[in-house]
Amino acid sequence: MAREREHGRDREERDNEFVDKLVHINRVAKVVKGGRRFGFAALVVVGDQKGRVGFGHGKAREVPEAIRKATDAAKRGLIRVPLREGRTLHHDVHGRHGAGKVILRSAPAGTGIIAGGPMRAIFETLGMHDVVAKSQGSSNPYNMIRATFDALKQEDSPRAVAARRTMKVSVLQGRRQGVDADAVDA
Fold first, then answer.
1. Which whole-number Å values give the CA distances from 18 to 1, 7, 41, in the listed order?
2. Torsion sign across C-alpha atoms 116, 124, 77, 62
3. Element (H or E) spanning 149, and its range?
4. Which SS3 state, helix, strand or coil, does residue 135 take?
5. In the structure, what pLDDT confidence band is assigned to residue 183 with cuts at 50, 70 and 90?
6. CA-to-CA distance for 102 and 100, rounded, in angstroms?
7. Collapsing DSSP states into helix, strand and coil, what is residue 8?
8. Residue 51 region, left (φ>0) first, then alpha (ψ -120 to 50), else beta?
9. How far apart are CA 186 and CA 168, in angstroms?
10. Which residues pair with 26 in a beta bridge?
11. Sheet with 100-106, side-by-side order of all strands
């Protein structure tokens, strides 16, 4: 009994570390003999504001139940995104899902989150402070979120790139500063 209480408390503490944002609710109607039956679909984004984020979709007859299902689905599908200095992206990325296309650009400190609707929810729950994002194509929140996640999955940290190339991070970033210095000279 005590073990179950401890397990429940651990789950609550784990759940408390996440921030969730409701992005979209869709109401659908099914026409039956007695009238209409309404159902609800919820789209939720969940993150720990330290570099992990996920999204989920849930359907039910009542809104709270749909939101709960979506939140549970989002927690099951978390991804880790490497952030530069814990506030922005390491490099610019493009993402695509269906007709939804997004461009995510790293930004200097103090820029803030320049993004619309569903993308803003992702960046806030991710813990990103400075980013410039543009959505092109579809404005459907489902496609925008999936396109944004496609872009975030392509994000690489200098450590991962250095490991892939079997070199040191300092050498890799030294090259980058060398390129920046050459650009200033030109």
1. 27, 18, 21
2. negative
3. helix 141-154
4. strand
5. low
6. 7
7. helix
8. left
9. 28
10. 41
11. 93-97, 100-106, 131-137, 113-114
Which pair of structure tokens corresponds to residue 76?
Answer: 């099951």
Q: What is the residue type of 66? A: A
Tell me, what's the pLDDT at 185?
A: 58
Half-sphere exposure of 130 (CA within 13 A, CB side): 14
Residue corresponding to tokens 């109401």: 27
Q: Rounded to whole angstroms, what are the CA distances from 82 to 51, 78, 87, 121, 168?
A: 6, 13, 10, 18, 18
Q: Model confidence over 108-127: pLDDT tens digits?
A: 989 899 998 899 999 999 98
The tokens describing 89, both together, are 């992206």
The span from the CA of 57 to the CA of 165, in Å, is 38
The pLDDT-based confidence of 161 (bands split at 50, 70, 90) is confident
Give the amino acid at 32: V
- Percent share of the chain, pLDDT over 90: 56
Residue 177's identity, in one-letter code, is Q
Question: For the whole prediction, is pTM greater than 0.85?
Answer: no
- The residue type found at 40 is F
- E strand residue ranges, 48-108: 52-60, 79-80, 93-97, 100-106
| CA 105 to chain CA mean position, Å | 14
In the chain, DSSP finds a helix count (H) and a strand count (E) of 6, 8
